[in-house]
Structure formats: structure tokens, C-alpha cells
Automatic annotation (TrEMBL), chain A:
Cellular component GO terms, alphabetical: nuclear membrane; nuclear pore transmembrane ring
Top-level taxonomy: Eukaryota, Metazoa, Chordata, Craniata, Vertebrata
Alphabetical GO biological process terms: mRNA transport; nuclear pore organization; protein transport
Organism encoding this protein: Sander lucioperca (Pike-perch)
Compartments it resides in: Nucleus membrane; Nucleus, Nuclear pore complex
Protein name: Nucleoporin NDC1
Automatic annotation (TrEMBL), chain B:
GO BP of this protein: nucleocytoplasmic transport
UniProt feature coiled coil, ranges: none
Species for this entry: Sander lucioperca (Pike-perch)
One cellular component (GO) term of this entry: nuclear pore
Name this polypeptide is given: Achalasia, adrenocortical insufficiency, alacrimia
Top-level division of the source organism's lineage: Eukaryota
InterPro entries referenced in this protein's UniProt entry, alphabetically: Aladin, Beta-prop_Aladin, Quinoprot_gluc/sorb_DH_b-prop, WD40/YVTN_repeat-like_dom_sf, WD40_repeat_dom_sf, WD40_rpt
Span of domain Aladin seven-bladed propeller: 99-438
Gene: aaas
Length: 597, 476
């Protein structure tokens, strides 16, 4: 079965790519549709004057129908489409967590990031040009006629126009940098499921607020930079003086334009997130063999693309909780043969996910116990064997590291991330040379690889840069824990409903392994939270488009794990005494049965 | 339709209701602590570790002093800005918050009630009590320690609730925020530090008057009459999603159906909503007269009983899979009824403060407001028997009365009482009593003769369970 799945790999990823694309295109289309009203509001705000309101409105109307307005609108649409595709290209469902300053610097200087920043700079300039056209007046053209000393007319540089264009570039660039720092490309899934429109509507005010504040800070920084660097010899009105820059109207227009730029981009991002995380219902089983690869058990066991695996896990968590009819399909036996293939595939995949996290936590704990020295290699190989023994096929390393197409991210980003645990080098890759690996695997920046190749002297000299903070390491360990949370929920709800719904007793056979897996994970999580800083709460950044869900994933996992075990113990109660398990697990289970955990 | 006229008359003064057995409410002429009747004691004490020992008596001075403070504040604010305008605004705000909490709380006369909130743990025999001095005590019959929870943000507690499928977490609705305490049941500490509490707050979302955990323990919803949005919290990650709907002007009372599929959210105006919890969409239910005061769900989540302010009836709504317009049906009429007792006429009935339905779905307790000014119109708890087959109906069971001079303020059913239903009542005196209703639940298979279950012998139960085995050995 595994073999057929593996052979279907390229075809599957192609299909998934199209699904990805479909969602992305829909979100971009909505962003483009929303552009006219936003632009109209921007035109009104930028041109409105209190003294001549009627005149301003008529000016706005005549501008909106002019050729230059239509041309700049087409340009804006192009920018939005480009932003949308950059979102699609760079998004990830597993955040990249930089454990140290140097790792963050590495991320910022990565060629992929450079391309991203450059793209945003250019798009920023384009949007700023459109803003200059829209605002009109002194901003409209790059060259102004000016009289030289001898009286002959000549074209001089219009610095008002230039300052706006450069502001666009600056805001675009800083948006791209902040995107890395705040993990803006990370797409998180919400605990509360809502329809797309309601989710969009609910986040709209937040997006507006974020854009306005971020624009304010960007403009402030830009003004400071411009004050020191903006010397243009050809300018008519030199602006690099305090008086020149403290022109309120100029500041207002800069801020309005930056807000407009950021708002349209953030809106595109918001729409993209809403569309890409929309719940998708996979069929549990299909009567046609050609559709088998679209069924939940198959999609779950696939490693790529990651977004599909996540959606499948989410669907599993929801169906196990809400849908009796789909649950009955999970518990059903195959015809002919009478094997619980669906349940076997689902439970095996969930258990292997959980076992993987347990191994990762144990390995990390051992590394910490030996002061992080030289343990990484051995744990790496250990984990490798364990993951193979738990029934996963080897990862197609070559495929995922080849940037084959524009949409390769969905292939590149996925399998290496959760499984090459952030602290252990993945030496099975053919790109074993560190330099190459640095280019190909941005995820590995958290690894102690940075530390191990360097001599200890360097480490001691620059401790701030190289040392990793434990809280962030902990975050990185749990970076993909959303998957584990769903696996836990799915398993525990299925086990709970099996008490009354499982006619053939297919779940009972797996109950000992499910319990021991959960209890083992519970033990590992408990030990992890006893480490310093692991249980310290992260600081919340309230107004930012970046998603900070990943910072609290470990707490969510811990809570879900406990709840899941309780769900099983309250359902089965003392019947669990008949389940075979080790004495230590029995003791732990007893704590749960007595409500003492 | 059931009405109060069908009820047996209230007890004469000096007698208290003890329990229900063999289809009738037993009474006791002596005070509970002096109870010596061996039969009754036997009847009561088989309930695990004698819940009577948990009865809490809160000092009277606490209630008096708080009442004085509030009166002082009101008197002070009557100077109306002539002395300290800035201070008056603050005081007004405090009083407004306070009035709002008192208005929308499920507790009768919340502001001077010694027990502000009460919550049984959904799985074990422990409960939390929020007192007038803003402290919370946790009573556990199996533990000698009684942890007291205090936090500087824990002001004007309007509701407490334990997280389902968890032994430790207790959510507390406070004036300005939501606190989630994590109290280790094995800890010997009597004063858990404030570090054990998570603080959840959202701008504009205060004062919080009602909270509800999802039965699966994953989400917590909170409501404030000042905020049109209802917050849905993922407590572990401390993130909240506001669910905003126009109309109603706030959310006052929340109740999550036991099957987890719906949430009742009432507003300060004549409108309430029923949310389905899968995609979080809602149905609007406009009321004719006033706001929805209280509501409760049947155990399977298919039926909602609710009461409306200014009306003396209980309505029922049925939720089925087939959508369609329907109207709420009146299932009980609780208009005022005069009973002749040896002590004179007593008028029972009127507006309803709160409803509670026991987890087996067989007993419904209704707390009637009464009139505090009139001695012959006491606040009283009327208990109904409920029947779903062939049609849903309420049948009279009886009145629950306490010691003379006390009135019931707050009530809750024990979530998993084995022998019927156990109603816990908090009285105006600060006493908390547990009242068992012994009956055989129709939903649970049972053996033996009809009538009340024979008194179980606790020492035999574990052995019985150990003999039963769900699992068959797998031979391969």
C-alpha cells in the first residue's frame, strides 16, 4: 500500500498544488475585487480638504475617471496579484523559529529572503508611484521645470515625488523584514471554526489597525534615514532639513500612502490565510480505486505537501468530534476481507506522529542533560531508525530540495521541517556539505550545527549571538505541534465514541498502544516543562499581522494531551484496568482515573 | 401544562426539606446540624463521604460589612461631583458595574449574597465557592486542606466553573478579566500563589457576568453585558476570538448544552441567540416581553428550557436536525398561587431567577424570586419531575425549603450523582446544603424493584467493577 502511495507521489503533489493554487487564486481574486473600494476611499482621504469639501469631491470624481487613475489602478492590481503569489510561494504551516540572533540574521540574509525583499521594494515603489498620481499636486511628476541662474528653463528633480517613491521602497523592504521577524508567512489554524466571510470580517478591523500603526513606525524610521542620507544635488526643494521634513502635509501624505500600501498587502495576506486554512472535508473511503489517493487515510499518511496533511488532520479532528456517520466509516471493515484498513491507517499515522514528538522531546532532554555536547549525532541516528521502524517510508530528500517550480515551496517546505528536529543535523541528505545545506534548508538554522562546527572559543566570545534561548528552543521543538494536537484530539474522540459506536471492536485492539503512547508523551512533556524557561509565557505582541500562535503551541499541546487522556479515562473508567500496560504507565493512568493530574 | 396549584403545599415554618425518597419529599423538623434521626442520617451519609460535612457557614459580618460599603459608596456618589468630580466618575463606574453584575447574575440578590458563585467539579466530589470577600474556597471531602484562592484582579466574582476533562483548572469571571486558576489537587498548599492563575482579558470585555466551558474542555466562552461580542477562548494559548453580532447590546448569560452542540447566549434586550458550535453561526430568538433571564439544556442537548424576565412561565425549545421556523412552547405556568398552611397563607410563584436541570434529565429545579419585602411571598425552589415520553411534560415534585428566615440564593445539581440527583443550594445565611433526590433514572438500565433504589453499600462497589471486564484477551 505504501508503495503505491509513494508511486503516486508526483501526481498527488501536482493535484495538491492545483488545490493550493485554486485557493490562492480565489483569495487573490477577492483582494483584487476589494481594491476599487479601498482605492476610492484612499483617493477621498488623500484629496479631501475641509475648506472646499464640494470642490474636493468633484475633483475626486473627475480623477477617478481619468486615464492616469485607470492606469495606476491596473498597476495596483498587478501588485496585488504579485503579492498574492509571493504569499503562496513563501507561506508555511510550520513556523521557522530562529533560536538565536545569528540564526535570525541567517534567515534575513538568505537568498530566498533577498528575492522576497527585492520584490517587495519594487512593488512598494510601484504602489508609491500610484499614490503620487492619486494625491496629485506637488507629488505628481518626478521632474519640475525650474529656472536656472541664467533664466533658461530646465527640468529639475521634484523631491516630493522622489521622497514618496523611496518611502514606498522603504516600507516594502521593512514589511518584508518584519515578515521574517514576526513570522508573517506562518499560517496558523484557528481553534474556532468560522465561515470565511465571518473570519474575514472579524479580522478586518485588526488589519486596519495594524496597517496604520506599522505605517506610522515605518514612516518615522524612514524620515530619520532620509534626513541623514537624502542629499540630491538636482533638487528644487531640498527636503533633507528638519524644516523640510517637518512639513505636516508631507508627513500626512507619507503616512496615508504607507497605510494604503500596507493595508492592501495585509488584506491580501489575510484573505490568503482565510482561504488556505478553510476546512476541507476528505472522503473517509471511496468505492472507486482511482479516488483512493484522495481519501483521508491516504492523505494523512502522505508527507507532502504539508498543508494537505494539516488539513487532513484537522478534518480528522472535526469528524471524530462532530460526525457520527463519518466515524462509522472509520470503524468499518473492508469488503471483502473484513480488515479495519481505515482505522488502522489513521491510528498508525497519529501514533507515529505522537511517537515522533516523544522521541524528539526525549532526545532534546538528553542533549540538555549532557550540556548539549556531542550528543546530537547519536540521537540523530537513533531517531532516524525509530522513525523508520514506526512505519514511515524514507523521505524523498532530493525531490524536496530541488526548487523545481514557482510552487515548489509546497514541496520544499514540508517534510524536512518537523522531522529534522531543530537540534539534530540531518546527515542522510546528499547535500551533506554544510555550505550547501545552509542554502537549501532554512529550517536547520536552529540546529546546534552552528555551534558544533565552530570552535568553542568563538562561542565563548560572542555568547549573545550564538547562544540560543531556551524558551525559543522550546518553541522550535513544538513548532509543528498543531499536527500533534489534532492527532490527539482525533484519536481520543474516536476512542471515546468507539465505546458506543464501534460495532466490530476495531478500536479496542489499538487501545493499549494508544494509551501507552499518550502516557509516554505525557511523561516526556512533563519532563520538558520542568526545564528552565520552558513554562515561561511568551510576551504577546498585540498589534502585528504576524501570528504568534506558534509561541503557545506547547501549552496548547500540554492541555490537549491531558484532556485527551481524561477523555479516554472518563469514558472507559475502571474498564481500563483490564488493559495491559507497564507498571509505570499504570501508575500514571491511575492518577488520571482519580482526577489527580 | 403543569402549574404550582398542583404542588403539595409548602412546609410549615421550622421544617426543612431533606431529600426525595419513594417519590415524595421528606422533611425534617430539626436543624440539620442537630439531626440525630438515624434513618435519615443513614440515608444521607451513604453519599460519598457525607456531603453534609462540607456545609459551609460564612460569617454574617462579611455580608453586613459589604452592604455597608456599597451603601456608603452610593451615599458618597449622591454628592454628585460637587466635591471630587473625578472620584465620582470612578465611583459611578464601580456602582454601575456592581448593579450590572447583580442584575444579570444567576444568584438571587447577588450583591449582598455571601456565596457569590458555586461550582461542582464535573467529575469528582469537590466544589468551589466564591465568597463575598472575593476569595474562592475549594472543598474536597477527600482532602484535609481547603485551598483559598485570592488574586488582586479577582474582584466581584460573578461565576466560577471547573474545566471539564481536567482536574485542576477553574475559570473565574471577574469584574475586569477572566482568571483561570490551576489548583493542583495533590498540593498541600492552602494559598496557591497568583502565579497559578492565567489572566485572560480583552479590551472592552468587562464586567464578565457569565462563563461556560465546552463539555469537551477545549474552549471557554465568556460574556459581558457591556460588550456586544462574546469571547471564545483557547485558554492554553490565551487567545480569544470575539464573535460579534449586532443587536441586543451585550451578552448576559451563557449556557453550553451538555452535548456540546449549542450555546445559549442571552442579551440585555428582548432577544437571545442560540449558537451552534461547529461553525459558530447563530439563530436569533426575539422574545415578546423581556430579556431571557435563565436557561438550561436537557442532557442530550436537544431541548432548551428558558425563562423570560417579567413572565412567570417556562418555555421549551426543541432542536432537531431539521431546520425550520418554530416557536417556543410554554411547558409550565408558575404564576402566583396561594397555599393555606398552619402558619397562614403563603403566596408562591412569580418571576423566575434561575433554572437547573439535573444531569439525568429527570428533575428540574426552579428558583422563584419571591418578594423580599413581603413575608408571605418567600423565595422558594420548586422542583419538577420531567418526562420526555410520550410528550415532554413537567410534573410537580415539591418545594425545597430551608431553615426559617433563610432564602435560597443559588442552586446547582451535582454533575454525576449515582443514585438520582443531588441539588446543592446556597442559602442567604451562607449555609450550603446538599439535597438528594433518590430515584431510578429511566435512561440508565437498572435491576430490582421499582421505586427508590436500595441503599447501596459503598464498600462493595469497587469489587463489582473489578469483576466486570470490557476487554477480551486477544489471541493471535
Amino acid at each position: 500500500e505504501t508503495r503505491t502511495t509513494f508511486n503516486r507521489g508526483p501526481q498527488r503533489s501536482f493535484e495538491c498544488m492545483w488545490r493550493d493554487m485554486g485557493n490562492a487564486v480565489a483569495s487573490i481574486a477577492w483582494a483584487v475585487l476589494l481594491l476599487p473600494p479601498i482605492t476610492a476611499v484612499f483617493v477621498i482621504i488623500s484629496r479631501f480638504s475641509l475648506l472646499h469639501p464640494i470642490q474636493a469631491v468633484s475633483e475626486c470624481l473627475s480623477f477617478l475617471t481619468s486615464a492616469s487613475a485607470i492606469f495606476s489602478f491596473i498597476l495596483l492590481c498587478g501588485v496585488i496579484i504579485m503579492v498574492g503569489f509571493l504569499n503562496l510561494e513563501y507561506y508555511t504551516v510550520i513556523p521557522t523559529i530562529a533560536c538565536s540572533k545569528i540564526a535570525l540574521l541567517g534567515q534575513l540574509l538568505h537568498p530566498r529572503q533577498f528575492v522576497n525583499s527585492l520584490g517587495h521594494c519594487i512593488m512598494g515603489i510601484i504602489v508609491a508611484w500610484c499614490c503620487a498620481i492619486t494625491v496629485g499636486g506637488r507629488y505628481e511628476t518626478i521632474a519640475d521645470p525650474c529656472a536656472q541662474g541664467d533664466g533658461s528653463p530646465q527640468m529639475c528633480l521634484n523631491e516630493y515625488h522622489l521622497i514618496l517613491l523611496l518611502a514606498g521602497a522603504f516600507v516594502g523592504f521593512s514589511h518584508s523584514l518584519l515578515g521574517v521577524i514576526y513570522n508573517m508567512n506562518y499560517v496558523s489554524f484557528h481553534t474556532v471554526q468560522q465561515y470565511k466571510y465571518l473570519r474575514f470580517k472579524g479580522s478586518l478591523s485588526l488589519v486596519l489597525k495594524c496597517s496604520a500603526t506599522q505605517a506610522l513606525y515605518s514612516v518615522r524610521n524612514y524620515i530619520v534615514v532620509y534626513f541623514f542620507l537624502g542629499k540630491w544635488s538636482l533638487s528644487v526643494h531640498p527636503l533633507d532639513s528638519i524644516a523640510g521634513l517637518l512639513d505636516l502635509s508631507l508627513l500626512y501624505h507619507l503616512w496615508i500612502s504607507a497605510s494604503f500600501l500596507l493595508f492592501t498587502w495585509h488584506l491580501t495576506l489575510l484573505l490568503f490565510r482565510v482561504f488556505v486554512t478553510e476546512v476541507y472535508s476528505f472522503p473517509v473511503q471511496s468505492s472507486f480505486t482511482e479516488d483512493a489517493h484522495q481519501c483521508l487515510p491516504t492523505v494523512l499518511t502522505d508527507k507532502q505537501p504539508m498543508i494537505l496533511k494539516f488539513l487532513a488532520l484537522l478534518d480528522l479532528a472535526l469528524l471524530s468530534q462532530h460526525s457520527p456517520s463519518r466515524r462509522s466509516e472509520v470503524f468499518s471493515l473492508s469488503q471483502p476481507g473484513g480488515h479495519p484498513h481505515n482505522w488502522n491507517a489513521i491510528s498508525k499515522e497519529c501514533l507515529s506522529l505522537l511517537a515522533d514528538l516523544t522521541q524528539r522531546l526525549i532526545a532534546y532532554h538528553d542533549t540538555v542533560a549532557t550540556n548539549g555536547r556531542a550528543k546530537s549525532l547519536s540521537t540523530g541516528s537513533e531517531r532516524k531508525t525509530s522513525s523508520e521502524s514506526s512505519g514511515m517510508f524514507p523521505r524523498p530528500t532530493l525531490l524536496m530540495k530541488t526548487p523545481a517550480s514557482v510552487f515548489a515551496r509546497s514541496i520544499v517546505g514540508c517534510p524536512q521541517s518537523p522531522l529534522t528536529a531543530p537540534f539534530t543535523p540531518d546527515l542522510d541528505s546528499p547535500f551533506a556539505s554544510p555550505a550547501l545545506r545552509r542554502l537549501t534548508a532554512p529550517m536547520d538554522q536552529c540546529s546546534p550545527w552552528f555551534g558544533t562546527v565552530q570552535s568553542p572559543h568563538i562561542m565563548r566570545r560572542v555568547p549573545k549571538l550564538w547562544s540560543t534561548s531556551t524558551g525559543e528552543k522550546s518553541q522550535a521543538l513544538f513548532a509543528d505541534s498543531q499536527a500533534h494536537i489534532w492527532a490527539l484530539e482525533g484519536l481520543s474522540y474516536l476512542v471515546q465514541s468507539s465505546f458506543s459506536e464501534d460495532q466490530f471492536g476495531v478500536v479496542q485492539t489499538a487501545l493499549p498502544s494508544i494509551l501507552s503512547c499518550m502516557l509516554g508523551l505525557q511523561e516526556a512533556v512533563d519532563r520538558h516543562f520542568k526545564l528552565p524557561h520552558a513554562s515561561s509565557k511568551p510576551v504577546r505582541s498585540a498589534s502585528s499581522m504576524g501570528d504568534s500562535t506558534h509561541k503557545t503551541l506547547r501549552f496548547a499541546l500540554r492541555a490537549t494531551l491531558k484532556t485527551s487522556i481524561y477523555r479516554i479515562t472518563t469514558t472507559f473508567g475502571n474498564h481500563l484496568n483490564a488493559v495491559k500496560m507497564s507498571a509505570e504507565h499504570r501508575k500514571r493512568l491511575q492518577q488520571f482515573l482519580e482526577y489527580k493530574e | 401544562m403543569c402549574s404550582l396549584a398542583l404542588f403539595p403545599p409548602p412546609l410549615p415554618s421550622g421544617q426543612t426539606t431533606l431529600c426525595e425518597s419513594n417519590n415524595e419529599l421528606l422533611r425534617c423538623a430539626v436543624l440539620l446540624e442537630q439531626m440525630s434521626c438515624s434513618y435519615i442520617y443513614q440515608l444521607m451519609s451513604f453519599y460519598i463521604n457525607s456531603p453534609l460535612s462540607c456545609a459551609v457557614v460564612v460569617p454574617k459580618w462579611l455580608s453586613v460589612s459589604s452592604g455597608c460599603t456599597l451603601a456608603l459608596l452610593r451615599w458618597f456618589s449622591s454628592f454628585h461631583g460637587s466635591l471630587f468630580p473625578h472620584l465620582t466618575v470612578t465611583i459611578h463606574l464601580i456602582i454601575r458595574c456592581f448593579d450590572m453584575l447583580a442584575e444579570f447574575s444567576q444568584v438571587l440578590n447577588w450583591s449582598d449574597c455571601v456565596v457569590r458563585a458555586f461550582a461542582w467539579h464535573p467529575h469528582t466530589d469537590k466544589f468551589a465557592v466564591a465568597l463575598l470577600d472575593d476569595s474562592i474556597k475549594i472543598y474536597n471531602p477527600k482532602s484535609a486542606t481547603t485551598p483559598t484562592l485570592k488574586h488582586r484582579l479577582q474582584r466581584s466574582v460573578a461565576a466560577v466553573q471547573w474545566k471539564p476533562l481536567c482536574a485542576t483548572a477553574l475559570a473565574v469571571a471577574c469584574q475586569n478579566c477572566l482568571l483561570v486558576w490551576h489548583v493542583d489537587p495533590c498540593s498541600l498548599s492552602t494559598r496557591p500563589s497568583s502565579g497559578c492563575a492565567q489572566v485572560l482579558s480583552h479590551p472592552g470585555h468587562s464586567p464578565i457576568t457569565s462563563i461556560a466551558w465546552s463539555p469537551s474542555g477545549s474552549l471557554l466562552v465568556s460574556a459581558s453585558p457591556m460588550d456586544t461580542a462574546m469571547m471564545v477562548w483557547d485558554v492554553a494559548s490565551e487567545s480569544g476570538v470575539p464573535l460579534q453580532r449586532v443587536g441586543g447590546g451585550g451578552v448576559t448569560f451563557l449556557s453550553w448544552s451538555p452535548d456540546g452542540s449549542h450555546v445559549l447566549a442571552s442579551t440585555p434586550s428582548a432577544l437571545f441567540r442560540v449558537w451552534e458550535t461547529r461553525m459558530w453561526t447563530c439563530e436569533r430568538w426575539p422574545c415578546v416581553k423581556g430579556r431571557c433571564q435563565s436557561g438550561c439544556w436537557s442532557p442530550d442537548g436537544s431541548r432548551l428550557l428558558f425563562t423570560v424576565q417579567g413572565e412567570t412561565v417556562i418555555y421549551a425549545l426543541t432542536f432537531t436536525d431539521t431546520p425550520g421556523s418554530q416557536a417556543a412552547a410554554v411547558v409550565a405556568d408558575l404564576s402566583e398561587t396561594t397555599f393555606n398552611t398552619p402558619d397562614g397563607d403563603i403566596i408562591v410563584g412569580g418571576e423566575i431567577q434561575s433554572l437547573a436541570w439535573d444531569p439525568t434529565g429527570e428533575r428540574l429545579a426552579v428558583l422563584l424570586k419571591g418578594d423580599p419585602q413581603a413575608a408571605d411571598r418567600p423565595a422558594i425552589i420548586a422542583v419538577f419531575k420531567t418526562r420526555t415520553n410520550p410528550i415532554f411534560e413537567l410534573l410537580p415534585c415539591g418545594f425545597v425549603q430551608g431553615e426559617p428566615g433563610t432564602e435560597p440564593r443559588l442552586m446547582q445539581f451535582h454533575p454525576n450523582f449515582q443514585h438520582g440527583a443531588l441539588l446543592t443550594v446556597c442559602w442567604s445565611s451562607g449555609r450550603i446544603t446538599h439535597m438528594p433526590f433518590y430515584f431510578l433514572s429511566a435512561g440508565v438500565p437498572h435491576f430490582g424493584l421499582s421505586g427508590s433504589p436500595s441503599l447501596p453499600r459503598p464498600q462493595e462497589r469497587p469489587a463489582d467493577f473489578a469483576k466486570q471486564s470490557l476487554f477480551t484477551e486477544l489471541m493471535s
